């Protein structure tokens, strides 16, 4: 064996062929257990596997195949930890045969050794994740094997791993990917813990990979860690969080959707509610003073909302192309009321008024059109609870950045009298093309199914006088465009009050008690 170790790195093809033949012969001898010596010659065998001579490669592939079969038959005799780093290095080889063979060995090692390989998880991930990008037929076998390794490694992490170290502290050691070879297998695999620092380093670095499949695999890993070991992974969230925010600008909708799931999990994780972690989250002081702590959310939720608006303010293209998609998905993943309330509170003190106006218009359009916000619309429409009225007041303060959005919010909440007063103030505003475009959009929304209840209320104009007057106010603001004719035709369908049946006395008394100012004006007409 000393002679084999000395000669195994030779580059002479004849010497290589001779060495591989000898290793094959020694492995066939029943009294010699070559698995004991395998860690000493494995690296050399993989180097020989990359030899340019086809015959030598075939011989070496056969010997390695026989070694792997022996390992599968007798895993108790194998020092997996002593060989895994060798496999990690060669699984990144440019030679397809060497790379595939190394990843195949890693797959079997993870399956056979299990948690023994957890200390080497960062190196395995660094080797496996980039190989998930191979979708061409030539390297499909490498991709499929890499997927199997990635899945098996992920299954090794369980809820029990979220416990603290025996000394009461969590591991913070920053290990490099050059992991020290472990020469002896631990007796108790349950005592082996995942060292997160190098794993987080690999994941954050690989999140910039050019392959969509690799980026999605990284996000699944981060999500898995937050589900299985939330308390431990939260010690590294300050490293992960900025990278996740950058990923919101990804070109793939699938990546963005998965990224939002991870950010939502971080924002709602109970692990982030610990006192020391709450204090560690930095939020700008003006925003911190005005934004209220959201129940069942940690401070990373507020930081996420602030950062999201900052991204939108600096990347207008992202807001136009993906803004609605991102907000709608977040409303599915988290509580829509929490999102709208927090965004509204942040926009109240936003320094960029032009952006605040644009953002309010975007949020308003989503609120009035998205199926994901049906319950929130219903809550605002009725205003039956103190929480719904509080939400309306919160939205109103920031919706004032956009006059037309404010009127539409009043229409949604059936505050028609206030909408009428606002429209009377529009005469003092500068009427721009953008302003008229927003009114045009509002008219289209009035014709949509969202405002069916509003159109039906026009059947009782004597009870909804301010609604009729508000719609006429919009009509007067519009030039004679398509929106003008649409709204004019709608108002022409409103029944004439003179031809309406007289109001029942009992009904009159009920309405008189609820809308005194309105009914007093009609009292003289019914005398």
Detailed description of the structure:
The protein is mostly helical and 527 residues long. It contains 29 helices and no strands. It has helices spanning 2-7, 13-28, 38-49, 54-73, 80-90, 96-113, 121-128, 140-155, 196-206, 212-228, 230-233, 237-247, 253-268, 275-280, 285-290, 299-314, 316-333, 336-348, 353-369, 374-382, 386-399, 403-412, 416-425, 433-446, 452-457, 465-477, 482-492, 505-514, 516-523. Helix 5 runs parallel beside helix 7 (121-128) and helix 13 packs across helix 17. The radius of gyration is 34 Å and the shape is elongated.
State the main characteristics.
single chain; mainly alpha; 29 helices
Q: Determine the oligomeric state from the structure.
A: single chain
How many H/I helices? 29
Q: Using DSSP, what is the number of strands?
A: 0
> How would a textbook summarize the main sheet?
none
Structural class: mainly alpha
Rounded average pLDDT: 85
First-residue to last-residue Cα separation: 117 Å
Unreliable parts: 165-187, 503-527
Order of helices and strands: HHHHHHHHHHHHHHHHHHHHHHHHHHHHH
Tell the overall outline: elongated
Rg over C-alpha atoms, rounded to the nearest angstrom: 34 Å
Roughly how much helix do the residues carry, as a percent range? 55-70%
